[in-house]
Amino acid sequence: MSSNSGIQIPSRLPLLCTHDGVLLPGSTMRISVDTARNMQLVKSRLLKGTSLKSTIIGVIPNTRDPEHDSDELPSLHSIGTAGLAVQVVGSNWPKPHYTLLITGLCRFRVTQLLRERPFPVAEVEQLDKLEQYTEGGQADGELGELSQRFYQAAVQLVGMLDMSVPVVAKLRRLLDSLPRETLPDVLASMIRTSNKEKLQVLDAVDLEERFKKALPLLTRQIEGLKLLQKTRKLRPDDDKRVLAIRKGGVFPGRQFSLDEEVEDEDGDDTAMLEKKVKAAAMPEPALRVCLKELKRLKKMPQSMPEYALTHNYLEMMVELPWSKSTTDCLDIRAARVLLDNDHYAMEKLKRRVLEYLAVRQLKSTLKGPILCFVGPPGVGKTSVGRSIARTLGREFHRIALGGVCDQSDIRGHRRTYVGSMPGRIINGLKTVGVNNPVFLLDEVDKLGKSLQGDPAAALLEVLDPEQNHSFTDHYLNVPFDLSQVLFIATANTTATIPPALLDRMEVLQVPGYTQEEKVEIAHRHLIPHQLEQHGLTPQQLQIPQDTTKDIISKYTREAGVRSLERKIGAICRAVAVKVAEGHKVSRCMCREPTLRNYETYTSPPEMPIVIDHIALKDILGPPVFEMEVSERLTLPGVAIGLAWTPMGGEIMFVEASRMEGDGQLTLTGQLGDVMKESAHLAISWLRSNAKTYLLANGSADPLEGTDIHLHFPAGAVTKDGPSAGVTIVTCLASLLSGRLVRSDVAMTGEITLRGLVLPVGGIKDKVLAAHRANLKRVIIPKRNEKDLEEIPAHVRADLDFVFASTLDEVLNAAFDGGFPAAVNHPQVVSKL
Ligand code: ADP
Predict the structure, then answer these.
(1) Contact between 521 and 338 (Cβ < 8 Å)
(2) N or C: which end of the chain has fewer CB within 10 A?
(3) Spatial separation of the C-alpha atoms in residues 400 and 51, rounded to whole Å
């Protein structure tokens, strides 16, 4: 080829020596520059020069590895490619280097090396014509025939690729518009060829020879593709993908390239995903979406941010248990034994759970209600849920909903969001890996609400058996069948569960435990469990029943057993230290004053270590709760009420005092509106009945010249509800009459202005609280009498219940010797 027409490259070129990759005219290549000479070339030529000429350099392939690059310039390949440096990117990490993006222009031959340092510069002879691509003159003879064959082969190859990929379509157009003589270089740089083969094409200066060298490579590629099509028998799309196309290859001004290495990695990855998608046994709509996304993924360069997003999405989709499930192994008798073994007491709950399971056994497609266990913390709600999963042989997953206030927590974020991810339900399914687990929705009463939507509304869809077979997570954007999932919810109170949600659930109350039940639970479950957790055996540590009772009454005040379990844990830890230290501990600690004394002994401890009340004090410190009831009732104007809180029942003191004033009522102790109204009601009733009960001290109004202050201790806790009405009346009656309320009486009940006592809720928890506090008499509204059935018989036996329908009955029961009204004994009273 002569160089006497068209565009000329400079006759002197700086030389960039590469050791990997061969730049052919018409293609673009990234070259990493890290040898001293090449660095110098980039610095002083490319980075300093501003003219177009300065960006043209000669690329000499196949130079020795830079590792061995010494001062001496190695012998250079005589033919190279003049290239245009399109981009220079510098980096200092891990060591200083540049990356050049170079587009090959034409061949040249080195005629004379002019200098070697700091970088080689040579006198060159241009070998290819560089013309505008408009000439398009057809060659004749053998060359013409060769170029025609080559062109046809190229068209055939492109025809086998996926035309919907834009770069392939572009290539197809380019085949027609490019001059034929450029085709061998362009195609050789795209198809699967080794460096050696590329070098042969580069060295073929004669055009005919170049066609001859490149044609077999092209045919080989076509044959390879055909073979793959035959053996794979995949869809046409897959066949066409055998050559992936990625950016990087640039024909001057027109980009395209087929790069093998990256394509392979990329191809492996997507092929693997594709396999997984097909193996995931998804329902039709999900599969369709996956295949569509997969198709998009194949066309995307890996560097595109969307690639990672789509990839993650597909990974998520294939990991979901679309059709993986465990087989239920339900045997009601075994379930009963298991539930009984795992949990002491809670008979009612266990009975209902067994009924539920029995129905499931008879009808596996049960669209029954969602069970919701409601009760104070630590009463075993979660633990029963776990047992249900075990009896069914299902996976168990707990979803904590406390504080969740964004509906996308349940339903996921749309994929358009940065950092989007599926909601907790779908994530849970991915974690357990089966589509029929037991999901425990913990603390549904503590769902929040915010600007980001109402998570309870999202839960509605999850829990509705009519809808949840097509639950659509925003992230997945395809329905997932949740109908096989067994949902169980837990809550401390139903008051804060959104009504629509509550409507979907069957509420099972789990009340607190009595002291006796707690002792049993401790000895049957908590102590053995804690011993095991701390690596101890019953031969090493024994906690007698009396000690357990002490722990329950003096160190804990709760409806459940969680803090009892913690205290037992603390004892185990203290003993574990002793056992591990090998100090002598006497057989019974009651003989020794404190644990500290044992440290003076050095022989191994004598087993078992028995915890008595002194050792208990030593480990847990002084008692946290003392029975203070009787001490507090030494003055008139104090009465004990019973309150219900989400933590269980509690006893509550009401205190009143009077002082000179003008009939004002002061209320303190964080009261809600209903409670304030109760206080006003109580005052009004007492004022109107002052004469009857001789409270007014001669005058018509007991509040004349007096201010009254009512206080509800534990002022940091907000209290509300009408059930303190009777207690306030009793307390004020005591204050005004100057008589002491019985110190072993607790009461609850709403009052009316006419002195009637109305029923209230939470009777079981309240009665248990009174029992815990060792009170003897409990006054409850008459209409609550039926609620006593739920209370264990031994608790009922310990307490004296008074069922009151009027305030008169309440007062009579609350004071020793009754609270006589004047009408009954007018003479006696007036004399007093
Ligand atoms: P909740 O979910 O009601 O707050 P958990 O289920 O977490 O309470 O129970 C706390 C601990 O108390 C667990 O270790 C559990 O095993 C134990 N527990 C509670 N009730 C019982 C019971 N009736 N029998 C045996 N262990 C119980």
Answers:
(1) no
(2) C
(3) 66
Q: Lowest mean pLDDT of 368-377, 394-403, 443-452, 649-658, name the range.
A: 443-452
Distances in Å between the Cα of 163 and the Cα atoms of 172, 220, 245, 305 are: 9, 21, 11, 24
Helices (H), 621-672: 629-632
Task: Give, in order, the Cα–Cα distances in Å from 660 to each of 663, 696, 707, 817.
Answer: 8, 14, 6, 30
Q: Which two tokens stand for residue 746?
A: 């607790």
Burial state string for 574-598 with b = 16 or more CB within 10 A and e = fewer than 16: bbbebbeeebebeebbeebeebeeb
Q: Closest ligand 1 atom to the C-alpha of 517?
A: 23
Q: How many CB atoms lie within 10 A of CB 703?
A: 22
The Cα–Cα gap between 49 and 740 comes to 105
Q: What is the pLDDT of residue 235?
A: 46
Which residue's C-alpha comes closest to atom 22 of ligand 1? 343
The answer to whether the annotation marks 382 as part of a ligand binding site is: yes
Region 714-726: mean pLDDT is 76
User: Measured between alpha carbons, how far apart are the two ends of the chain, in Å?
Assistant: 139
Report the distance separating Cα 323 and Cα 394, nearest Å.
15
Q: Is 375 annotated as a binding residue?
A: yes
State whether the Cα torsion 550-556-561-565 is positive or negative: negative
Task: List alpha helices for 53-114, DSSP H.
Answer: none
* Lookup: tokens for 192: 């699967």
What's the mean per-residue pLDDT of the chain? 82
**Crossing angle between the packed helical segments 207-232 and 195-203, to the nearest 10 degrees:** 150
Torsion angle in degrees (nearest 10) through CA of 568, 573, 575, 578: -170
Report pLDDT digits (tens) over 483-541: 888 899 999 988 888 888 888 888 998 888 888 889 999 999 999 999 999 988 888 88
- Read off the amino acid at residue 268: D
pLDDT tens across 785-794, in order? 998 888 888 8
Q: Are strands 438-442 and 505-509 parallel, antiparallel or unpaired?
A: unpaired
Q: Is 367 a catalytic residue?
A: no
**Other CB atoms within 10 Å distance of the CB of residue 355:** 11
pLDDT tens per residue across span 83-135: 988 888 887 776 778 888 899 989 999 998 888 888 889 999 988 876 644 44
Candidate list 387, 723, 734, 737, residue with the active-site label: 723
User: What is the structure's pLDDT at 366?
Assistant: 63
Taking the CA of residue 345 as reference, the ligand 1 atom at the shortest distance is 23
